[in-house]
Structure formats: structure tokens, C-alpha cells
Amino acid sequence: MGVLSSLKRSSIVHLMLAITFFTSGLIINFFQCILYFGLRPFSKYFYRKINYYLCYSFYSELVCMAEWWSGSDVIFYIDKKEFDKYYGHEHAYLLMNHSYEVDWLLGWVTCDRLGVLGNCKAYAKKSIQYIPTLGWAWKFAESIFLERNWNKDKDVIGSQIKELIEYPDPIWLLLYAEGTRVTPKKLEASQKFAKEKSLPILKYHLTPRTKGFISSIPYMKGKTMAIYNIQMAFKESDSVKPTMTNLLLGKKIEGHMYMKRIPLEEVPEGDEAAAEWLHKLYQEKDKMAESFHKTGDFFATSGVPKTDTFKLKRRHYSLINTLLWGVIVLVPMLYYLIQLFSSGSTVYCTIGVGIILLFYLLMYKTIQMSEISNSSSYGAADIKKIK
After folding, report:
1. What is the sign of the dihedral through the CA atoms of 260, 165, 102 and 315?
2. In terms of residue numbers, what domain contains 60?
3. What are phi and psi of 95, to 5 degrees?
């Protein structure tokens, strides 16, 4: 056990993980690009079917890090009858709180266990689509990229959702209605805005941005799609905090995820009514967060009915996929690096060092992007765009 723990803390092992992840990502991006321009114009159906497995292959490497490398897990709070009937069998529009560095990754763990990981979509900032590997993968996967310019974004949302609901297999579309992760500074700015606009003042969430939500719903109604209200939490008493760094170091975390299926018909017609409905939903989410924060239980003081609690088994596909990519990438990569360093040439050695530094930089930047302190702003410039 001591040897395994040392390996999980080893910078060399972390470097090999980074090399595998980013190199495999570029290979997958290459094939996605060929299919996007060579197959999609003729058959969206077959393009999406094939791209599902390409996306799965890439995303599941991060799922493997969470599940198999760190041993992390999720406890689910879901009505079991509804879970068996609907979850993983229909298109879903996810409304999830955004309070932690790794809430999205444990969301991916959930998607993997339900067999929908390759069809995970999200609303994201337009700039992300230009980031190699993950950003490019999202672009080819037809995620919804927004500029936060409403005149442009409303048309993008409508056209993209029309595309997504045509998918042959269930998709899960994630909206972080808060727009960014919660920090004390952002929460203070959000509460000030809510007070000025006579909106509900939340203690644990930022005031949700309603425009993206109310412009999306009309395109979904009448389709085989439902809203999934998701509340993710981690116990503050846990010794290991939910960060990407801790996962990379092989430290186990345990998430608690409440999920409730809401039929689209429950969202009222009209922009104002739909916006009010979303604000009320976030008031309920805030009560659940407060209950969990104070008691370690979503239901103790929130007034939300208690539901079934269970875990889902890990699937071996993410582990097998990651091991295969490790062989495909690391064997030739290490061979050429050894050749460069053993050549005796200053130029070749410099190239070898440069390659290693590049992968370290990519790994560092990726972890940095996930950190709450580096998430997007929520201040005076952003406040005007909330509603």
C-alpha cells in the first residue's frame, strides 16, 4: 500500500498521465475533425453514433482518474422507481449547483455509470472551444457555446437545441444557471444584486441567470426530455477536500448527489413565469444546501421529502480504455524520449526537455482552470447579465 501511495504522489507518474491524456485527446480530435467535415454533412446520425465513442474514450480517462486512480465515489439520493424507468433512457436537461472544483467530474462519473457519458453536453463560454483537446472535443460534440451577448446567444441556443434533441441516443445537457462557481466575493455580489432587484436572496448559491433557461425550454417541450434537478454536496468534515489536485494525488473523495426528475410541463408558459419558477427552484436548492451544510443531510431541515439512497457500481470500461491509451501513447513516446536523451546531441536533449515541460505546463494549466479561485468573475461587470 505504501508503494502504491508513493506512485500516486510521484511527479513522474503524473507526467505519464498527462502525456497519455493530452496525446490521446489530440488523436481523438484528429479523427473527430475528419468525421465532422467528411461524414457529418452526409449523415448526422452516423457521425453522432461514432463520435459518441470518441468522446467517451476521451472523457472516460478523467472518469478513470476519479473512480480507479483515487477510488472516489458518489452516493445518490433518487427515487428508485423513477431512476429505473427514466434515467439514462431519455434526453435530460440538467440544472446543477456549481460549488466545487470537481462537481462536474463526479457528474461525469454518474453519466458513465448510466451509459450516457459520450453524449454529455453543456453550455460553455465560446472561448473554451478553441482550447486543444477538451475544448475541441466539446466543439465536435456540438456543445452550446455562448458569448454572453444575448442578441447572438438566443439564436445559438435555439438552433443548437433543435440539433441536440434529434440525437439517436439520450443526451444530457448541463446548465450551470449560476454562471460560475461560488466564492464568498461572488456570493456577496449576487446577494447585493438580488436585494436591489427584489429577488430571493440565497445563502449558498448565486442568483441564477434566467435567460438561457427560459429561451431553451420552448424548444424542448413536446419532446422526450425532462429536467433533472441536481444538488451536489461534499461533507465539510471530510479530511480530503474535493479538488483536482487531490484526485491526481490519488486521494479518495465522496460526493452526495440528489437528483429529481421534473417533467417539462411543470415549467409555466411565458418568460416571467418561467424565470420565477427557476428562482423558486434555487430557493429549494438553497434550503437543501443549508440543511446539508448544518446536518450532513439534504432533508433534515430543508422540507424536501426524503428519497431513496444508493450507490451505483463502477464500470470497468473507463479503466480498460485508459490502460489501452497508456500503452498506445506511452510506449512510443517514452521510446522517442529515451532516443532523444541518449543521442548525446544538445539539440535533441533540449527538444526532449521541451516536450516534458510542455506536458507539465498543460497539466498545470488544466488543474489551474478547475480551481475556484480561477473561475470566471461575478462582479459589477457580470451582474448586469444575470437576469
Report:
1. positive
2. 10-320
3. -115, 105
